[in-house]
Design brief:
The complex is a heterodimer of chains A (about 350) and B (about 260).
Chain A: H1 3-11, H2 30-36, H3 47-59, E1 65-66, H4 74-79, E2 83-84, E3 93-94, H5 117-133, E4 138-142, H6 146-154, H7 156-165, H8 167-191, E5 195-199, H9 209-215, H10 217-226, E6 231-234, H11 243-246, E7 253-256, H12 262-269, E8 274-279, H13 281-285, H14 290-303, E9 307-310, H15 320-336
Parallel strand pairs in A: 1-4, 4-5, 5-6, 6-7, 7-8, 8-9
Antiparallel strand pairs in A: 2-3
Chain B: H1 10-19, H2 23-34, H3 38-48, H4 52-64, H5 69-89, H6 95-119, E1 126-131, H7 139-150, E2 154-157, H8 164-174, E3 178-182, H9 190-201, E4 209-213, H10 219-225, E5 229-230, H11 234-255
Parallel strand pairs in B: 1-2, 1-3, 3-4, 4-5
Helix pairs in contact in B: 1-2, 3-4, 3-5, 4-6, 5-6, 6-7, 7-11, 8-9
Classes of the chains: A alpha/beta (about 350), B alpha/beta (about 260).
Chain lengths: ~350, ~260
C-alpha cells in the first residue's frame, strides 16, 4: 500500500499493511521552513510556498499525509476577521479581541468567501499538492467548524458567555456559520483533498461533554452527511467523555489529545470511528527526544490506535528529529510485529 | 467545628452537600459559611448561580447598610468563588459557567474597588500578568487577575500577545517581584520559556518569581521552561502567588 491507500483505508476502518502516520494539523517548523525556503508568514499566504512547506511532512519527515492549512485562520480571514500574520517564528492568529460580529443576524458569509486570497491560497495549494503528490500520499484539507469560527468572529469570552446566557442565539450563530464550513470543505474536495480535518474547539478544558452534545453533535452529523470525504474532527483537551457523542456523528476519525489515555479512548469509541493522535506536543515533541516520542507512539500502537501523529499543531521550534521518530517508530514496530 | 445547619442560606447548604466532595474541604466550607452573616451568604449564593444583577444589588445594599467593603468582598464574593473554584477543579462546571460567576463577582467588585482604593490599604504584593506572545486567549489570565486582586494583590495586567520585552518592561516599570504568564495553545507555550530566558539575559531572574498556567500547561512543562511555579487554576494561582512571594521575602530576609 502507498501512503494514500493506507490512510484512506484506516479512515474507512479497513485493513492496512501498517499503521499510517497522519498530520491532521500542522507539523510545520522553523527548521523545515529553512530547509525548503518557505517561511511564515508568506507560507500562509502564497499557495506555492504553502504547498512546498506542507510537502515536507512527507518528503522530509516521512508521514503518509500532507496537510497544507497550517493555521486556523485562513477561513476567518475570508469571513472578515482581522489577522495578525506575525513573523517566521510565531503563529498567525485572528484578533479575537476585536470581534467583527455581535448578534446572530450579523453573520453573513461574504460573496467572495472562496475567492478571497486566504481561502484561495489553500485551494491552490491543495491543487498543487494533489498534482505533485496525490498518487503517493493522502492530501488532507482543513475547514474550521462553526464553534471555532464563532470564537474568532464574536470573541472567545463573549461567545462562551452567550452560550451560557442564550442557547437559542448560540444555535442561530452556529447554524449561520455552518455554511462557511461546508462551502470551504467542498471547495477543498474539488481542489483535490482526500480527507478534511474539521477543528471545532469545544475544547475539553473549556466546555463539558454535555455542552458538546447540546450544541454540536447534530451539526457535526450534518457535516458528515454533506462533505463526501472522510472527516477528521479535531478537539483539544481531555475529551474521553465527548467520545461517545463524537462516535455517533458519522465522522471517520477523531484527532485526540495526549490528555486522553489511548487504550481507554479506543475502548470508548469501540470501532465506531478511527482515532488519530496523540503524541504530546509541549513536553514530548518540543522538549524531549526521539526515545520519549517512540514510547508514546508505541503506547498508541499497542492500544490499536489506527492513525498516529502529533496531538495538535506543533510548536514551530519542535526539533524535526522528534517528528521523524513518529514514522520511524511505527515502521520499526510493525517490522518487529511481523507486518511490513 | 460548625454544622451545616448553622448556614442559613439553602443554596449554599445544597452546594456544599452536592458538589464539595472532599471531606476536609466540606468541613472548611461549612466553617467558612457558618461564620458569615446570612446577608453575605446570600451574596455568595447569587455569585455561585452566576446572577450578576442580584450580586450587584445585594453588594450595593450591603455597603449601604454600612458593612465594611472588605467584609463584603471576603465573606460574600470571595467565599462564593471558593465554591466555584472547587466545582471548576472537579469538572462539575466549565468555563462558560465560571465566566458567568466571574461576571457576577465583577458586578460586586465594581462597588467595592473604589472604596478599597480610597482606604489606602497596602497591597499584599505586586504581580505582572500577561498572556504570552502569539496567544490571544486570556480567559484564564483574566480569572487569575480577578482572584489575585480579590486577594489583595496589585495586578499589572499586560493583556494578550505579550512579548518577552513587554514582560521585562512591565516588571521593571512596576518594580514587581512576581510574574504570571498564561498560554492556551501548545504552539505558543514555548514563549513562556523564551520570556524566562529573556529575563535571565536582562539580569533580573534573581529578583522575580515566575508562575505559569493555562489549559495545556503542566507542572512538568513549567519545570522544563524554568518557571518557579505552576498553577492549575485561578484559586491555585492565588495560593502560588502568596507562596512565591513569601519565599522571595524569606530569601531577602535571609540575605539581609
Amino acid at each position: 500500500m502507498n501512503g494514500r491507500e493506507r490512510v484512506l483505508a484506516a479512515l474507512a476502518g479497513e485493513p492496512v499493511d501498517r499503521t499510517p502516520t497522519c498530520t491532521p494539523t500542522s507539523v510545520a517548523t522553523v527548521e523545515l521552513m529553512d530547509l525548503v525556503d518557505a517561511p511564515f508568514p508568506a507560507a500562509n499566504r502564497d499557495a506555492e510556498l504553502m504547498a512546498r512547506l506542507a510537502a515536507t511532512s512527507y518528503t522530509e519527515l516521512g508521514f503518509d499525509t500532507i496537510m497544507p492549512v497550517f493555521s486556523i485562520i485562513q477561513d476567518s480571514s475570508a469571513l472578515g476577521c482581522e489577522i495578525q500574520w506575525e513573523g517566521k517564528d510565531n503563529w498567525p492568529t485572528a484578533k479575537m479581541t476585536r470581534p467583527i460580529w455581535a448578534e446572530p443576524e450579523d453573520v453573513t458569509i461574504p460573496s467572495d468567501f472562496l475567492t478571497h486570497p486566504d481561502t484561495k491560497c489553500v485551494l491552490d495549494a491543495i491543487s498543487i499538492l494533489k498534482r505533485e503528490y496525490g498518487d503517493e500520499v493522502a492530501i488532507v484539507g482543513k475547514t474550521m467548524g462553526p464553534w471555532t469560527q464563532a470564537y474568532h468572529c464574536f470573541g472567545v469570552e463573549k461567545f462562551l458567555l452567550l452560550s451560557y446566557d442564550d442557547p437559542d442565539k448560540t444555535r442561530q450563530i452556529l447554524d449561520r456559520l455552518k455554511t462557511a464550513t461546508v462551502d470551504f470543505g467542498r471547495a477543498q474536495i474539488e481542489a483535490g483533498a482526500d480527507a478534511l480535518t474539521l477543528p471545532d474547539h469545544a475544547t475539553g478544558d473549556l466546555v463539558s461533554a454535555k455542552y458538546y452534545d447540546k450544541y454540536l453533535t447534530d451539526l457535526h452529523r450534518e457535516f458528515a452527511n454533506e462533505l463526501e470525504v472522510p472527516l477528521i474532527l479535531h478537539i483539544c483537551g481531555k475529551t474521553t467523555e465527548f467520545m461517545d457523542y463524537i462516535s455517533q456523528t458519522g465522522f471517520a476519525a477523531f484527532h485526540y489529545d495526549s490528555k486522553n489515555n489511548p487504550k481507554e479512548s479506543m475502548e470508548i469509541v469501540h470501532g465506531r470511528l478511527a482515532l488519530v493522535g496523540n503524541i504530546n506536543n509541549p513536553t514530548t515533541l518540543y522538549s524531549q527526544g526521539p526515545e520519549e516520542v517512540a514510547a508514546e507512539v508505541t503506547a498508541n500502537l499497542e492500544a490499536g490506535v489506527p492513525l498516529i501523529g502529533p496531538e495538535c499543531a506543533i510548536p514551530l521550534q519542535t526539533p524535526i528529529d522528534n517528528l521523524r521518530a513518529i514514522p520511524e517508530t511505527v515502521k520499526a514496530w510493525h517490522r518487529e510485529h511481523g507486518s511490513n | 467545628m460548625a454544622d451545616l445547619k448553622d448556614i442559613a442560606n439553602e443554596t449554599i447548604r445544597d452546594e456544599i452537600t452536592e458538589f464539595v466532595e472532599r471531606e476536609d474541604e466540606q468541613e472548611k466550607m461549612i466553617d467558612l459559611f457558618a461564620a458569615v452573616t446570612p446577608q453575605m451568604q446570600n451574596i455568595a449564593a447569587a455569585l455561585i448561580e452566576g446572577e450578576n444583577d442580584e450580586v450587584d444589588e445585594l453588594t450595593k445594599a450591603a455597603l449601604g447598610d454600612g458593612i465594611e467593603a472588605t467584609e463584603v468582598m471576603d465573606d460574600g464574593l470571595i467565599a462564593g468563588m471558593a465554591i466555584v473554584g472547587i466545582k471548576f477543579r472537579d469538572n462539575i462546571i466549565f468555563v462558560p459557567e465560571v465566566l458567568a460567576c466571574a461576571r457576577a463577582m465583577k458586578a460586586g467588585m465594581t462597588h467595592i474597588e473604589p472604596i478599597l482604593s480610597e482606604s489606602g490599604i497596602e497591597a499584599v504584593g505586586k504581580v505582572v500578568m500577561g498572556t504570552v506572545k502569539g496567544d490571544l486567549h486570556d480567559i484564564g489570565k483574566n480569572l487569575c487577575t480577578m482572584m489575585l486582586r480579590g486577594a489583595g494583590f496589585e495586578v499589572i495586567d499586560l493583556g494578550v500577545d505579550t512579548s518577552p520585552d513587554d514582560f521585562i518592561d512591565g516588571l521593571e516599570e512596576n518594580d514587581a517581584p512576581l510574574l504570571g504568564m498564561s498560554a492556551l495553545l501548545t504552539t505558543t507555550m514555548p514563549n513562556m520559556g523564551r520570556t524566562i530566558e529573556a529575563i535571565i539575559d536582562a539580569g533580573m531572574r534573581d529578583d522575580v518569581q515566575v508562575m505559569v498556567g493555562g489549559a495545556p500547561v503542566t507542572q512538568e512543562f513549567a519545570d522544563d521552561m524554568g518557571a518557579d511555579g505552576y498553577g492549575k487554576d485561578a484559586i491555585d494561582c492565588v495560593e502560588l502567588a502568596k507562596q512565591l512571594l513569601s519565599e522571595l521575602r524569606g530569601e531577602e530576609a535571609a540575605g539581609a
